[in-house]
Here is the input.
Amino acid sequence: MSASDDIDESAAPLIEHLAELRTRLIRSVIAFLVGIVLAFTVAEPILQFLLGPIEETLRELGDPSPTMQYTSPQEYLFTLFRISMVFGFALAFPVIGVQLWRFVAPGLYRTEKNAFLPFLIASPVMFLLGASFAHFVVTPLAMAFFLGFADVPSIIADLMGSITGADQVPVVAGAAQEGIRITFFGKVNESLDITLKFIMAFGLCFQLPVLLTLMGKAGLVNAEGLGNVRKYAVVAILVLAALVTPPDVITQGILFTVVYGLYEVSIFLVRRVETKREAKLREEGVWFEDDDEEADDIAEDQLK
Here is the structure.
């Protein structure tokens, strides 16, 4: 057999893998396009749902008819299309996930399949939990904080009225009858941008237990190491809370509490992974108390 024959035979599996990858990508793209079309048909109700926290805040501040605007002819259409892309991907994710799994599964050992598949299912579930937390808890607090500044003069007037008991409160300093009245006319795309940023940020933060547990199964992290860097994790979470939330203590405190709680849950899950692996190795008689590195090497060989 010549050298060229060896090259041809070794190239054949690569060509087959590339053809398989192309098929999986085409199916994923088709599912994504179908998801975009389906999401576009209900993009308007989705937009109303996403802007719900702003509407509720404006009504609480005394606006009987909350109104938002767009300032260019194509802005509203592009906003709906943006929503369609985000939620179209969400609709297509089950198909995309199945295609990804069918592509990588043939190259995995049985134990690796059993380890990887639960995380493929847990990841979108945790993202959905994070997105729901952002929309129903964080966004209303943020909108109340930002839009509350528009009602400062009336708050001062109500406070003075409650103190003096007068029906008509004199105009306070800084609230002159002449001048420009500053009020809120929100743009649709900018308001949606804030909402989507919160959803993405908290959705990704809720991936922390999934990521660290998967790394624990791969032997990249351990519970003891995560516990030793806890103080650095606290600082990192505080910085994250300051960056992705409005500058009010309540919202930042909520984000810090949630993310730090997820970090502690991650340590617990990694410790469980280590305990199960140790118990399995003890049953097989290949666990060495004095040589953890050798035990880890044997564990990897046993898993394969």
The longest helix spans residues 3-41. The radius of gyration is 27 Å. The chain has a mean pLDDT of 76.
